[in-house]
């Protein structure tokens, strides 16, 4: 990180102190630097996960580096703090700027010039903190993707390898489940079955079914786009005799059916899965299902499975929470209200807001195709389930 940017802030503050011990324009100075010099600060905080990884690697691989760092950390000027503590200081300090500006704003008279400047400084400080947090979160997510990708193996030549690392993808949930596999019986809860452990990776837009190996790798067995999956809990009738794999489970079954309406091979396949507990099953179901609105007349959509529309008329927003549209703008629709208003996000720049539905026209996309698959699934009775 280029310290010159922050030496400028320090220099401006010291220059101001030379004129007066009362910093009555502190918010103005901070506002100027928030808007001009803090991009490098955001980059530094965003790369914190890489700094920590590099520090661990150097300590493990470079004895001379470890010796030098240990000697410096032992110096009394460090006050018992290690190198990692100093690397984290910028991230910790940046969160204090909004607190400082808010304390000043709280003591100013509303409507005066200083109040307006302090308000702008507070918004700028919150923006910097937000971008630092988002950058760090984005880098941490990328690190997770890299770690998973390095452990994935593909042994099936018919299974196309996924380019897992993507700026818009992140890990949602991972864990082990027991898969019950049918052996030529139409009744999935009564037929002859066998079980095997599977390890599931649920990402923001895709789900992977893998087998965990002893060497720490994961053999990919199947995958599907998240919009092409459907899940339903299954209950075992306690008054009915069960056999096969279900009867061999050591605890009460907590089953759910996960249907890949279109898997990696372009086919429909069903997985009968068992979770460790009722809570574990509910957590998986909640993670796998799209969001549902409490208002039955409102429709909400996840970013990974939402309708799209193209603007057919220009719309100029009338309020701050609305979204201006130009003809041809592509919009992801995230909410639909019964009075004809949509909430969406433009694909070009990520701007979001409300707009009238009459200004856009919905288009055919994967969300519509997945909906068609889901409607067809509801019309047929699943006779059994397939395994890889």
TrEMBL record:
Residues 170-293 form the PH domain. GO terms for cellular component: cell projection. Gene3D superfamilies: Dbl homology (DH) domain, Pleckstrin-homology domain (PH domain)/Phosphotyrosine-binding domain (PTB), SH3 Domains. Keywords: SH3 domain. Residues 304-365 form the SH3 domain. Residues 1-135 form the DH domain. Pfam families: PH, RhoGEF, SH3_1. GO terms for molecular function: guanyl-nucleotide exchange factor activity. This is SH3 domain protein. It comes from Ancylostoma ceylanicum.
